[in-house]
Amino acid sequence: MDKLTATSIFESLSSGVRLDVFRLLVKKGLDGMVAGEIATTLEVPPTNLSFHLKALTQAHLLTVNQEGRYQRYRANLPLMLDLIAYLTEECCSGNPQQCIDLRTASVCSASLLLPIPPISSKL
Predict the structure, then answer these.
(1) Can you list the domains of the chain with their CATH numbers?
(2) What's the confidence (pLDDT) of residue 113?
(3) How many whole angstroms separate alpha carbon 27 and alpha carbon 4?
(4) Angle between helices 35-42 and 16-28 (to 10 degrees)
(5) pTM for this one?
């Protein structure tokens, strides 16, 4: 991922409604949701929601598939993981073992924090 792509993603998520939509679809995983379900769940008028869904889709944060007369939206989980990797790839100057103690300061559940693999030394 490059800086321009990361910036575009953050700009797309800078709206509270779009952030709520993305987090909801991340929660739904591969099942995704149709637009009407998203609108009902988040209590957002459908006309307002369509604007936000379009913005998220244009930023590649969502994928959309036609299912009859409905459109099913899914979070682009690989892109989300790429963004996380981009943000953390230089953690602790490339020495992630230094970050282990910082995990206790995170609000993330311990089960969500992946163990940091040992750094293999290249000779």
Answers:
(1) 3-78 (1.10.10.10)
(2) 55
(3) 26
(4) 120
(5) 0.80
